[in-house]
Amino acid sequence: MRAEAALVASAFAVYDSFGFEPLQTPAFEYADALGKFLPDEDRPNVGVFALQDDDEQWLSLRYDLTAPLARYVAENYDGIPKPFRRYQAGSVFRNEKPGPGRFREFTQCDADTVGAGGAVADAEMIMVAAEVARAAGLGDDQYAVRVNNRKLLDGILEASGVANTEEGAMQRLQVLRAIDKLDRLGEDGVEALLGEGREDESGDYTKGAKLNPAGIRAVLGFTTASDPDREVTLATLSGLVGISDRGKAGVDELAEIDRLLTATGFGPERVSFDTSVVRGLGYYTGPVFELELLAEITDRKGRPVRIGSIGGGGRYDDLVSRFRGQAVPATGFSFGVSRFVTALERMDALVAAAQPPVLITVFDRALLPNYFQLASELRAAGIRAEVFTGSGNVTKQLKYADRRGVTLAVLIGSDEAAAGEVTIKDLVLGAEMAKAIETNEEWKSARPAQQTVSRDQAVATIRDMMSE
Q1: Second CATH level (architecture) for the domain 358-467
Q2: Residue 273, beta-bridge partner list
Q3: Which pLDDT tens digit goes with each residue over 209-262?
């Protein structure tokens, strides 16, 4: 929880520095407001938790933070500044089978700009994603933001004869899903999904997009058109889209993004153009991007683990428009908090957790005012402190301290109180020293990692011991 809160706070600081404002939308929305915008356009109302209220209206727990934002903007459109720039973190819910890294409830952290058309807002959102990675503690060699434009693929498909009809829209969705599996299935697997279909190792068969051979070659050529040099990629794409107006518009938008990124120091080592990025969600309409981890990560057995994409976003101009019946451009960035934290943990890149509290043990309940007074002084000095409020002798209290990960414990009995002293035990150092002590006599003579100081020096001594 501390790691996730720290990550969200870091992201919020980035969003705030770019001029975004916080917003909180409710966990429940009317189901018809969400069903249109689920990731699989051909499976509306699947994947959400839904119920009927007393008026027999269907309510659903939010699937993401974007559709509720679109509803909020549409509902308050005339009273909010445009562009409307907001950030938010909160739980989202998926009615799916849970598995490793997949949960029915998890936290997302988003930033969005609604009401700004053109590639300028997209370029800014890409900068935000890269800055969030830095704010999380990653070096520039540990992550990359990979950018593409859905208009480019539309142009390729247009040139390949895929009709701009309802049937063609389904075919385009199948093409996007196929490309999205490039990392997992390789070029041969994607080629099969672009054609007639593919049977996996379990025997399950997935129908293909049924592109003609020329269309398959064009799409596969598109997915491998990337170059580390963004200008080279742009030149290659200009040739691939041919005379398609939509394809040319996609190239022009990437060129504008490149111009702004270059001017602000976001070089190709941080942000690259990658035509294999499509983002599986059906509502993206223009530039899309993914934040990917590049660091080598291993599991507990030392085997390499590929984390891959931990966040992403893009332009989704149709989302608010469906509520209002008028064009409302929008673009955004989102990452899953738990997934990001898990990746940071495996990379040993987590920000250090808060220090455990100093435990003030209770020798004598008559001295409770003394214990709480010392605890207050420690807190005033910025040190976490806890008076043991349970029951049990000091031995039990020190076992409790061990389970809490406490490093320092304070002991004040009647003798110490009468003498105006406190005893401070370094439990970690004491445990290490105890391993080398074999007899009870040695233990009594060593008094490992324990010191007695005057009461008025207690706070300063504890601060010094914590800084060692």
Answers
A1: 3-Layer(aba) Sandwich (3.40)
A2: 147
A3: 888 888 888 888 888 888 999 999 999 888 888 777 888 999 999 999 999 999
